[in-house]
UniProtKB/TrEMBL annotation:
4Fe-4S ferredoxin-type domain sequence ranges: 44-74, 95-126
Co-factor: note: Binds 2 [4Fe-4S] clusters.
GO MF assignments: 4 iron, 4 sulfur cluster binding; glycolate dehydrogenase activity; metal ion binding
Protein name in UniProt: Glycolate oxidase iron-sulfur subunit
The species this protein was found in: Micromonospora sicca
This enzyme's EC code(s): 1.1.99.14
Length: 467
């Protein structure tokens, strides 16, 4: 796509092509408030100051999954930032602009890669909120999004799906549907959902509180999550056991928890996200926790940003900022506390997959690897191109099933190339996406959450239980 040059701008040649030079805000001519008729209204538009930080160097391009897939400048971080700048300068929010914003997975790989520290995370979050407020999608898209948001952020509704899903999986209908090959052609979105659904075990009921084993080192709240609690209750059970074994009183309060708001934040549904965030804060306000632990990467990055999310809310702003400071990924907290429980051997080769919202959004890469390497007998292997998203990205794989499957297939190839017997990651979305991709590739590798591997080692369970 050709980017029009602004009068007086100096073109810059970079790895991804030629672009207008950036400069200070007055050179760019960005108004303090977006002009009338532009893409954005005055309620938190993408900030001109942050846009100006981009020097168009193009270092982010090779790490961007949509640029890797299509090689289109407007489907790269740099291209999207350019569109935001155009929107601030008066360009209306066109269907094409929205398409390029919608295609962003929000993986934040570009944030890690950017040498200029561009806060693309803030930019795309503010942009998505504008899109949700100011753009009317087509009827099919509206209906699909309405269905997703009437279901996914509600753990109780998701849990109602368990029975029919288990019956479907047990009946052999799943194999029959796969053999016909018709579903992806007739209903790609339904086919994507069907392929992602994990094999369900028995639900594990969590107590309101689990006491520390031995001397107490911390009181820790724990998020049970939506997809995690409905489809991976065994991961939550393992998380609570590991925390207790490492000397934490675990406050769970499963009946008071709901969605943390991550899915809504990542899709520009600002008011809904705030409502969920307030509810989470209310649930744990009186629990007196030292830390709040999350075992789902996408939720963790949102909880750490509660201060920003509720910054305009006079009643909750201070509470949200304080709470956000206590949020830790499970691996982060265990690493911070240091081990006290005995690790028993687990003789297994493990490939560790960095969930984007853990590695790029939270900068948590070393801690899970250290925890896994500390397990006797466990051999850790690295996956090639770890910075490229697996294509899960919240609901992106449901909204964009074709490209998501392509990204999943790439990830499956690099995962299987490690020759490991077990793939470990820390996000339910990645677990489902990689499992579906590996199955499509005809590969054979077991999948587990970091918490399950640690739990098996602490309880001296045979490694076969994970395989
Ligand atoms: S968040 Fe991911 S998909 Fe979006 S622009 Fe950045 S690298 Fe590309
Ligand atoms: S976002 Fe960062 S890495 Fe990408 S073009 Fe701009 S300055 Fe370069």
């Amino acid at each position: 796509m050709t980017i029009p040059q602004q009068p007086g701008e100096r073109p810059v040649t970079s790895p991804g092509g030629t672009f207008p030079a950036t400069g200070p805000r007055d050179v760019l001519g960005l108004a303090a408030q977006p002009p009338d008729g532009g893409a954005f209204d005055a309620h938190h538009p993408p900030a001109a100051e942050l846009i100006s930080d981009c020097v168009h160097c193009g270092f982010c391009l090779p790490t961007c999954p949509t640029y890797v897939l299509w090689g289109e400048e407007m489907d790269s971080p740099r291209g999207r930032i350019y569109l935001m700048k155009e929107g601030l300068e008066g360009e209306p929010l066109s269907d094409s602009m929205v398409t390029h914003f919608d295609r962003c997975l929000g993986c934040m790989s570009c944030v890690t890669a950017c040498p200029s520290g561009v806060r693309y995370d803030r930019l795309i979050e503010d942009t998505r909120q504008q899109v949700e407020r100011r753009h009317r999608r087509g009827p099919r898209e509206r209906a699909l999004r309405a269905a997703i948001f009437a279901l996914f952020p509600y753990p109780r509704r998701l849990r109602l799906l368990r029975g029919p899903l288990r019956a479907y999986q047990a009946s052999g209908l799943r194999r029959l549907v796969a053999r016909t090959g018709l579903l992806p052609r007739l209903a790609p979105t339904l086919a994507a959902l069907e392929s992602l659904a994990p094999r369900l075990g028995s639900p594990a009921r969590l107590p309101a509180r689990m006491p520390a084993v031995g001397p107490r080192r911390a009181v820790v709240g724990m998020l049970t999550g939506c997809v995690q609690s409905a489809f991976f209750p065994e991961v939550n059970a393992a998380t609570a056991r590991v925390l207790a074994a490492e000397g934490c009183d675990v406050v769970i309060l499963p009946d008071r928890q709901g969605c943390c708001g991550a899915l809504s934040v990542h899709n520009g549904r600002e008011e809904e996200a705030r409502r969920f965030a307030r509810r989470t804060l209310d649930a744990f306000a009186a629990a007196g926790v030292d830390f709040f632990v999350v075992n789902a990467a996408g939720c963790g990055s949102t909880l750490k940003e509660y201060g920003d999310l509720l910054r305009d809310d006079a009643r909750y702003a201070a509470l949200a900022a304080d709470f956000a400071g206590k949020v830790r990924d499970l691996s982060e907290l265990l690493d911070e506390l240091g081990p006290v429980a005995t690790r028993h051997p687990l003789p297994v080769t493990v490939a560790y997959h960095d969930a984007c919202h853990l590695a790029h959004a939270q900068g948590v890469r070393a801690q899970p690897r250290r925890l896994l390497r500390d397990i006797p007998g466990l051999e850790l292997r690295e996956i090639a191109d770890p910075e490229i998203c697996c294509g899960s990205a919240g609901i992106w794989n449901v909204l964009h099933p074709g490209p998501a499957a392509e990204l999943g297939d790439r990830k499956a190839r690099t995962v299987l190339a490690t020759g490991a017997r077990l793939l470990v990651t820390a996000n339910p979305g990645c677990l489902m996406q990689v499992a579906a991709s590996v199955t499509r590739a005809g590969g054979d590798i077991a999948l587990a959450h970091t918490a399950q591997v640690l739990d098996a080692s602490l309880r001296a369970r045979p490694v076969e239980e994970l395989l």
